[in-house]
Amino acid sequence: MENNNRITSILGIKYPIVQAAMSWITDAKMVAAVSNAGGMGVLGPHGGYNVAPSGGPTEVGERLRNEIRKIKELTDKPFAVNLYMPKEDSNIYSKTTFEVALEEDVKYFVAVGEVNKTMIEEIKNHNGILLFRELTPTVEGAKMAEGYGADIIIATGYDEGGWIPQNRIGTFSIVPTIVDAVNIPVLATGGINDIRGVRAAFALGAEGVYVGTRFIVSEECPAADATKQDIIHSKAADLLLVSSLQRSTPHKLARELEAMYRNGEPSHKIEKKIGEQGGLLPGMLLGKLDEGIISVNTAIDLITEVKSCKEIIHELMADFIK
Fold this sequence. Notes:
- This protein has helices spanning 6-11, 28-36, 56-74, 92-103, 117-125, 139-148, 171-181, 195-203, 213-216, 225-233, 252-262, 267-276, 281-285, 309-316; strands spanning 17-19, 41-43, 79-85, 108-113, 129-134, 152-156, 186-189, 208-211, 240-241, 247-248.
- The chain is of the alpha/beta class and 322 residues long.
- It folds into two domains: 6-221 and 303-320, TIM Barrel (Alpha-Beta Barrel); 240-285, no CATH class.
- The chain has an eight-stranded parallel beta sheet.
- The longest helix is centred in the first third of the chain and has 19 residues, at 56-74.
- The chain is globular, with a radius of gyration of 18 Å.
- The relative contact order is 0.14.
C-alpha cells in the first residue's frame, strides 16, 4: 500500500491509524506515544486522572488544559481531543472542552455522538479538523456530517468495544455502506486488532483505521495491569452483553448486570447503575475487575501480549512501512 493517502494528508500523520478516544484510559503519555509512532493519539474523557471531578465543568476544563500541555511537552506531532456531540444545541461540558482546546491551540477533534450542525460548523469556523463518529452509524448521518463540514467519518461496527451501535451491523457491513455514501475518507473501527483487520478495512474501502481495544493492552496505556491481563486471557466467547449498549469480560458486577438485562431490566437503568459504580473508572483504569466492567471489542482472542504503542502501530501498519 502507498504511504500517502487522504487520511494521512488531512491529519498530517505518517500512518493512517487513529487511537480511539477511550474514557479514563488515555493520558498524555499514551497520546504522545501514539503520535510519536506515526499515528494520531486522541485524549479521551477524564484523560490523565483517576478520580471523578467534583467541581463541575470548570474543573473538567482545567484538567483538560493540564493534560494538553503535558502532551505538548512529550510530542510535537498532531494529536486530537475528544468532543461529545449531542444531537441539539450544546452541552456545558462539550462547550468547555471545545473552548479550552481552542485556547490551547488544538486543531484536531474527534466528535462522538449525534450530528449537530451548529457544533460542526463552529469547529470548522475555527479552522478545526473534524473526525466524526456517529454512535450508531447511518448513511443519513454520515451524509449530513459531510455536508456540514466534517473532514473524516468514522464508521463503527457492532464488533467494537465501548458504546455499541444500536443497529447491530457488523464492521464488514457498515464500512462499505458508509464509504459508498460519502466523498470524504472513512476510518473503519470495530474489532481491528491485527494487520488482517487493517487489510480487511482497506479492502472494504476505508482509508484508515480507528483502534481502541488493542491500544488498551499497550505499555503506555494507563489502564491497570490487571485489566490488561484480563483482556489477554479472555476470549470473545466469554464476553457478556450487560446492556444494549455495552459488553464486558465476565466478572462479578458484569455477571449481575448481564442477568438483569437478560431478565428484562431496561438498558437505561443498567447504564445508570454502571454510572453510579463509576462508569469505566473502577474496572478499566483501576483494575477492580469485580467492581466494574471491562469494555472490549469482539476480537480480543487476537490480543496475546502487552506491547508498546510503537510496536502495535508498526505491526498494524506494516503495509505502509517501507
